[in-house]
Design a protein that fits this description.
- The longest helix is centred in the first third of the chain and has 5 residues.
- This protein has a domain of 72 residues.
- The strands form three sheets. It has a five-stranded antiparallel β-sheet, with no helix packed on it. A five-stranded antiparallel β-sheet has the order 8-7-10-5-12, with no helix packed on it. It has a two-stranded antiparallel ribbon with strand order 2-3.
- Helix content is 4%, strand content 48%.
- The protein is mostly beta strands.
- The radius of gyration is 15 Å and the shape is globular.
- Strand 2 and strand 3 form a beta hairpin.
Length: 141
C-alpha cells in the first residue's frame, strides 16, 4: 500500500510588503539534502514523477493545481492565487504541479536525497493519470 501525502494550507505573516513563512521546522530542515526553487510558466506542468527513496516537501504558491497519488487514490488540490500550501510526499507518492495562470507558479522544494543525475531518485510516474492542463485555445486564462 502507498503511504499518505500531507497537504497543508499555510497562514504566513502578511503585511503591506508581502508575506514571510518558515517552511520547515528545525528537525525537518536538518534532514534535507537538496533544495530547489522552481518558477513555472502559466499552463506548464512539472513533476509527473515519484521518488524512490527521498521524501519531498514542496511549498507551492498559487495559482496552481497539485495532483498526487497516495493511499487515498488520486487527489487534486487547486490553490488559488496568493494562497500558500505545503505538501509532504513520501517515497513512491507520485506528484505533479500545474501552473494554472495567467501568472507563473512558484515552488520551493526540499528533498531528503542529494540530487544525483547518475542515480536519479525521481522516476516518471507510469501508474496514475498524468496531469495535463487546458491549452490557452481551450479557454484557459
Amino acid at each position: 500500500m502507498l503511504p499518505r501525502a500531507i497537504a497543508e494550507p499555510l497562514a504566513p505573516s502578511r503585511d503591506a510588503r508581502g508575506f514571510v513563512v518558515e517552511p520547515l521546522s528545525l528537525a525537518q530542515l536538518t534532514a534535507q539534502q537538496n533544495v530547489h526553487v522552481v518558477w513555472t510558466a502559466a499552463g506548464a506542468v512539472r513533476g509527473n514523477h515519484h521518488h524512490v527513496r527521498g521524501t519531498e516537501v514542496a511549498l507551492v504558491l498559487g495559482p496552481a493545481l497539485v495532483r498526487y497519488r497516495d493511499a487515498n487514490g488520486i487527489q487534486d488540490v487547486e490553490i488559488t492565487k496568493g494562497t500558500l500550501y505545503r505538501f509532504t510526499f513520501p517515497p513512491k507518492v507520485a506528484h505533479a504541479f500545474g501552473a494554472l495562470g495567467p501568472e507563473p507558479m512558484f515552488l520551493v522544494g526540499f528533498n531528503t536525497e542529494i540530487y544525483d543525475s547518475d542515480h536519479p531518485d525521481a522516476l516518471p510516474d507510469h501508474y496514475s493519470e498524468r496531469m495535463t492542463l487546458p491549452s490557452s485555445d481551450e479557454g484557459a486564462a
